[in-house]
Structures are given as structure tokens and as C-alpha cells.
Write a structure and sequence with these properties.
The structure holds two protein chains of two kinds.
Chain A: E1 3-12, E2 20-30, E3 35-40, H1 46-51, E4 61-66, E5 69-72, H2 81-86, E6 87-90, H3 103-113, H4 118-131, H5 148-160, E7 166-170, H6 178-195, E8 198-202, H7 206-212, E9 215-220, E10 223-228, H8 230-234, H9 237-242, H10 249-260, H11 272-289
Parallel strand pairs in A: 3-8, 3-9, 6-7, 7-8
Antiparallel strand pairs in A: 1-2, 1-4, 4-5, 9-10
Helix pairs in contact in A: 3-4, 3-5, 4-5, 10-11
Chain B: H1 15-18, H2 21-34, H3 41-58, H4 62-70, H5 73-86, E1 92-96, E2 99-102, H6 103-129, H7 132-143, H8 153-183, H9 193-224, H10 243-262
Antiparallel strand pairs in B: 1-2
The chains are: A alpha/beta, B mainly alpha.
Subcellular location (chain B): Cell membrane
InterPro entries (chain B): ABC/ECF_trnsptr_transmembrane, EcfT
Family (chain B): Belongs to the energy-coupling factor EcfT family.
């Protein structure tokens, strides 16, 4: 499902003293089957942007199309359920949304709301719980007895069980330990590759954005500042710094190393392997000079 | 979604904002009492005039006051209609079956509507111009004499300010959970009454779990910082009773005297 924003503006608290323009004439395109990361300073409009994709927020002006659905500023009430079935949304700290007596029931909540039969919902729930790696021994326990990281997996399973084609992740790794982050991110990366899901991730972690995505959108002041491949976006080091953003640690490291070697160039390398290669290249060059 | 104006504070810089919360609380209390003295056109118009001056001095936008009124408009309307048809006396203006509208009934119902509107306007003005913390501080200071007879005034004030402090947090949390469950296909706004009531469970459970957790965290944080109640505490914001506060009280008392003099 292609996602297109056309001149979308969103104003919070319109006509009150608290009026705030969160999105300002945003136009952008997220191709079907892509992994898109949205980076930006706090308050740059990232969450507001993604909440338009499944109709949780409505634009104050402009229009959004998601596959065949069109969300228009002037449109009165419309049925958003079919859209929400296609577009899953994992909120920040999704473990706060758990409520059922047992884990399996909570995961079934989504599919049942979209009119899936009991047995089918249970089947999907079991599948999703396996995907997120929660052992079957837990399934009939209360979700409130789990650890924070496990609760988050259950909440994510609850979104996966609906079988969306697009998944929005709002800082999915906030508050997790390094191993937890790695596992959650590789789960989504795997889903993206295997099932060709469109994934849109809001993140503060530049390395995650760089490693996993095909497209990075950098937001600033309610507008997309840059929208391109990670290599292209992170080559604008100065611009990113100016709006309170950073580059991945690997690039930081390389730029310091290059400076030591007396070079002023920007190398984009995100994974450990690429970084190692870049270092080897540099060392070879230096050796040739000596 | 949560567009409640009653009880909402709008930070601004005006004479009314700068008044001591104690003088504002006492004046609003007295004002609500003396509203009942007004029983003719002149006295009622005086009350309206007083409100208008208050709004003007607070620099508050009229639309804000109007929003506060809109939520109680139906109550005003019902009392207006009840009085209109039930009050007797005077000449009959209009009758329809057993319903009669008399001149007395008409003036009476207008006066009562004015009374309600005026009360709501001053109380809205109080909360719009005074932050919840200021209100509880003011109350605590006014109730201070009760400490002599071992009433835990400080603890009550603390409880009040904590609950007021967490109202916006809870609203935010509610909105977030509504969104999260809506994203999972839950529907709060349509369907039969039964299905709507059922849709509240996925909202209430996380809300309560979160509230209890937050309360525990807060208690822990307070203990960790050595909080032990009233004894020897100082305040960040001292209350200051200035000449404007005295002026406000004097004008309320004058207004009361004028009302007693002018009413029939």
C-alpha cells in the first residue's frame, strides 16, 4: 500500500490560546514494501505525522492516501476500521495498552474487533506470540505478571495478529536493553523482508534508522527536511546537527578517525562490517603514503 | 477531545492573574452569596457589570468564557423554561393550554438565568486566572487555624494538589490508550450501548494499572527525597496580600451594600 501525503497540515487545539501547528504543508511519499524511518527532534511532528496514516488524527488541511483509502480534511465522519485493519500501529510503550486476563486473550482482542472468528483469532494469536518469541508456557498467564520487555512483545503480538500490511512503530525500542532492541528490530526487519510489509518507524536512534531502512525522513518544525536513502540523508552532517539531530555512531567514529589522518571527508558507513572496511581502506591509504 | 474550559487555567499576565488566590477565593465565595440579593433590573445589571469588569481586567478572551458557558447552557435553559411556565402573578402574556406565561414569570426567569450565568462566569474566571496550585495554596493558608485542632490541613492540600496535578496526565494517558485500542479496532463512538460499555473495559483497565503504578512511583520518589509532611516546610511561592487584594474585597463589600440598598 503506497502512502502519499499531499500538502497536509495539522493544527492542535484550533481556535484556542493553545493552538499549535504540528505539521506544516507536508508532502511526501512512502512506497509500498519499504522500510521508512522518521527521525527528528522532540516536537518536530514525527508522531503527529504517523498518526495520520491510520486515521487516528485527521488533517486540518490537505489529504492522505493509503492504498485505496483517502483521508481528506473536508470529509465528514467515515468508517476507518478497514483502514486500521490494514495499518497496524505499535505505540510508544505499547505495554500500557494491555488489559485482558490472559496473554492469549489480549492478543486476540485485535483480530476479534475486526470480525475474525474465535478459532481463527486464537490461531493468529498463537502464531504472533511465536513470532515475538514468547514461550507457550506463558500464554495463559496474566500479562501483568510479565517483565517490561515481555509485556512489550505481547503488545506487539497483539498488533501483528491483525495481520496488517503496513506497520507503524513509534519508538519501539524506547526503554529496552541493547539485546531487547536488537531482537525487536530484527523481528520487524525480518517481517519486512519475508512478508513484504511496509514499515514506518519513528526513532531517536540514528544507527537503527540507518541500518534498517530504505528511506529516512528527517523532520524539523513540522516539515520534512530531508527524505532520501540513509546514505544520502546522513551525508548532510551539518544540516542534521543544526536541527538537533545526529549521525550514526559509526560515522561519528570514522569522521574522528579521518580527522586524525588529516582528511575532511564524509564517509557513510552504518554497519560494523562497512565501518571495518572503511577503516581498512583508510589504513591502506595511509600506508601507501608512508 | 477534552475541551473542558471549566477548571482550566490559562496563564496570562493581568491584574486578575496577579491577585492573591485567597482574595480571589473569598471574593468569589462572597459574590456567589450576594448574587441572591439581586432581585430587580438595576441590581442584576450591577452583577453583570461587575462580571464584565472582571473579564475585562483579566484580559481573557470572550470566546473562552463563552466555551465555559456552553457546557452548562442546557441547565440554564431548563431552569429558565421551568420558571417561565411555573411562576405566577402579573398579567398573562401568552397562554397555551394549561401553560401560562406571565410578566412576573418572564422577569423572574430572566433574573434566575442571569444569576446562574453570573455565578458560572465568576467561578470560571477564578479557575481560568488561578492555577490549581495557587488555589490549593490559598485554601491551605486560609484553613491554617484548623491545624490548632489537629486537622491535617497540609496533607489535605497536598492530596488536592497531587490529584489536580495528575488530571492532565490522566487525560493524556486516556487519549493515548483510546488511540492505541482504536488502532486495534476497538470502537468507542459507535455501535449499541452494550458494545460501547464493553469497549470501555480495554480503556479502564490500563488506565487504573497506570494510575496505581504512578502513585507508587510518586510515593517512592517523595520518600527518597525525605518528604515528611508539614513540619518545617517552606514554600517556593509565597502568598502576597497586596493593596489590590484589599481593594477587591472592599469593592465586593461595597457591592453588597449597594445591593441591599437598591433591592426591593
Amino acid at each position: 500500500m503506497d502512502i502519499t501525503f499531499e500538502h497536509v497540515t495539522h493544527v492542535y487545539g484550533q481556535k484556542t490560546p493553545f493552538e499549535k501547528k504540528a505539521l506544516n504543508d507536508v508532502s511526501l511519499h512512502i512506497p509500498s514494501g519499504s522500510f521508512t524511518s522518521i527521525i527528528g527532534h522532540t516536537g518536530s511532528g514525527k508522531s503527529t505525522l504517523v498518526q495520520h496514516i491510520n486515521g487516528l488524527l485527521k488533517p486540518s488541511a490537505g489529504r492522505i492516501s493509503v492504498g485505496d483509502f483517502v483521508i481528506d480534511a473536508n470529509q465528514k465522519k467515515q468508517d476507518l476500521k478497514p483502514l486500521r485493519e490494514k495499518v497496524g500501529y505499535v505505540f510508544q510503550y505499547p505495554e500500557h495498552q494491555l488489559f485482558e486476563e490472559t496473554i492469549i486473550k489480549d492478543v486476540c482482542f485485535g483480530p476479534m474487533n475486526f470480525g475474525v472468528s474465535d478459532s481463527e483469532a486464537t490461531k493468529r494469536a498463537e502464531e504472533s506470540l511465536q513470532l515475538v518469541g514468547l514461550p507457550a508456557a506463558y500464554w495463559h498467564r496474566s500479562p501483568f505478571d510479565l517483565s517490561g520487555g515481555q509485556m512489550r512483545r505481547v503488545a506487539i503480538a497483539g498488533v501483528l495478529a491483525v495481520r496488517p500490511q503496513v506497520i507503524i512503530l513509534d519508538e519501539p525500542t524506547a526503554g529496552l536493553d541493547p539485546r531487547g532492541r536488537e531482537e525487536i528490530l530484527s523481528l520487524f526487519s525480518d517481517l519486512h523482508k519475508r512478508l513484504n510489509l511496509t514499515i514506518i518507524m519513528v526513532t531517536h536512534n540514528m544507527s537503527d534508522a540507518a541500518i534498517y531502512s530504505d528511506q529516512v525522513i528527517a523532520m524539523d518544525g513540522g516539515k520534512p527536511l530531508l527524505a532520501d536513502t540513509p546514505e544520502e540523508v546522513f551525508s548532510h552532517v551539518e544540516l542534521l546537527r543544526k536541527v538537533g539531530l545526529d549521525v550514526p555512531e559509526t560515522m561519528e567514529f570514522l569522521s574522528k578517525l579521518l580527522k586524525k589522518a588529516g582528511k575532511q571527508q564524509v564517509v557513510t558507513a552504518f554497519t560494523l562490517d562497512d565501518t571495518a572496511d572503511a577503516v581498512i581502506d583508510l589504513l591502506n591509504e595511509v600506508k601507501d603514503h608512508v | 477531545m477534552f475541551n473542558l474550559v471549566i477548571g482550566q487555567y490559562v496563564p496570562m499576565d493581568s491584574y486578575v492573574h496577579k491577585l492573591d488566590p485567597r482574595s480571589k477565593l473569598i471574593s468569589v465565595f462572597l459574590f456567589v452569596l450576594i448574587v441572591f440579593l439581586a432581585n430587580n433590573w438595576v441590581t442584576n445589571m450591577l452583577m453583570v457589570l461587575f462580571c464584565l469588569i472582571g473579564i475585562f481586567l483579566s484580559k481573557m478572551h470572550f470566546s473562552f468564557i463563552y466555551k465555559g458557558l456552553r457546557s452548562v447552557f442546557i441547565i440554564v435553559l431548563i431552569t429558565f423554561l421551568l420558571n417561565l411556565f411555573l411562576a405566577t402573578g402579573g398579567t398573562v402574556l401568552f397562554s397555551w393550554g394549561w401553560l401560562h406565561v406571565t410578566t412576573n414569570g418572564l422577569t423572574q426567569s430572566i433574573f434566575i438565568a442571569i444569576r446562574i450565568v453570573v455565578i458560572i462566569v465568576v467561578t470560571t474566571l477564578l479557575t481560568l486566572t488561578t492555577s490549581p496550585i495557587e488555589i490549593t495554596d490559598g485554601m491551605e493558608s486560609m484553613l491554617n487555624p484548623l491545624k490548632r485542632i489537629k486537622v491535617p490541613v497540609h496533607e489535605f492540600a497536598l492530596m488536592m494538589s497531587i490529584s489536580l496535578r495528575f488530571i492532565p496526565t490522566l487525560l493524556e494517558e486516556t487519549e493515548k490508550i483510546i488511540k492505541a485500542q482504536a488502532a486495534r479496532g476497538s470502537d468507542f463512538t459507535s455501535g449499541s450501548l452494550k458494545s460501547r460499555i464493553k469497549a470501555i473495559v480495554p480503556l479502564l483497565v490500563p488506565l487504573f494499572v497506570g494510575a496505581f503504578k504512578r502513585a507508587e512511583d510518586l510515593a517512592m520518589a517523595m520518600e527518597a527525597r525525605g518528604y515528611h509532611g508539614d513540619a518545617g516546610r517552606t514554600k517556593l511561592h509565597q502568598l502576597n496580600w497586596g493593596w489590590r487584594d484589599t481593594l477587591l474585597l472592599v469593592s465586593i463589600v461595597l457591592l453588597a451594600c449597594v445591593l441591599i440598598f437598591m433591592r426591593n
